[in-house]
């Protein structure tokens, strides 16, 4: 029996992770009334923010029906690996790139995956509009490629057997 049949509403969560860095501009944006209202309009009920090393503390005050929780810095949700793990799990994803980082390879990765329609891409200042415009049904499931051709090429280059 699902929650709706016994009087409970189903829960729909947004998980925000900044990895191990400081990305206060994203946390502040997600904490804004404008973004929370848009998430609520999209049917989201819970917001979990992994804050990294930032100093901004989100408001725990629930706006509309969104329940907010925060967790501290963790290495588990770091880097491009969290992008690919989310795609592998088939979850809709908005990648918000931290433009303050030097050598931001995640920006190139996010732009390419967004172009291929595997995820949505935003900057803190465009996040509200991205949430408003997004349609998770339009995303194309991500299928990891076959690594064997690259492995064979590397083995050949290094003088190892290629079979």
TrEMBL record:
Give the top-rank taxon of the lineage listed in the UniProt record for this protein.
Eukaryota
Q: Which Gene3D superfamilies match?
A: Glycogen Phosphorylase B
Question: Which part of the chain is the Glycosyl transferase family 28 C-terminal domain?
Answer: 78-140
GO cellular component term of the entry, any = UDP-N-acetylglucosamine transferase complex
GO terms in the biological process aspect are: dolichol-linked oligosaccharide biosynthetic process
Q: Which InterPro entries match?
A: Glyco_trans_28_C, UDP-GlcNAc_transferase
Q: Report TM segments.
A: none
Quote the Pfam families the UniProt record gives. Answer: Glyco_tran_28_C
Write out the GO MF terms.
Answer: hexosyltransferase activity
UniProt-recorded name of the protein: Glycosyl transferase family 28 C-terminal domain-containing protein
């Amino acid at each position: 029996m699902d929650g709706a049949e016994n009087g409970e509403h189903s829960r729909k969560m947004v998980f925000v992770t900044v990895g191990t860095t400081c990305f206060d501009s994203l946390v502040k944006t997600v904490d804004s009334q404008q973004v929370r209202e848009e998430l609520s309009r999209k049917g989201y009920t819970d917001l979990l923010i992994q804050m990294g090393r930032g100093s901004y503390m989100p408001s725990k005050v629930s706006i509309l029906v969104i329940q907010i929780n925060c967790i501290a810095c963790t290495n588990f949700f770091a880097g491009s690996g969290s992008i690919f793990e989310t795609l592998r799990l088939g979850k809709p994803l908005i990648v918000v790139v931290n433009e303050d980082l030097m050598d931001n390879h995640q920006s190139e990765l996010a732009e390419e995956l967004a172009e291929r329609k595997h995820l949505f891409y935003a900057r803190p200042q465009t996040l509200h509009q991205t949430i408003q415009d997004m349609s998770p049904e339009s995303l194309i499931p991500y299928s990891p490629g076959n690594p064997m051709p690259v492995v064979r090429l590397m083995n050949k280059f290094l003088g190892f057997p290629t079979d």
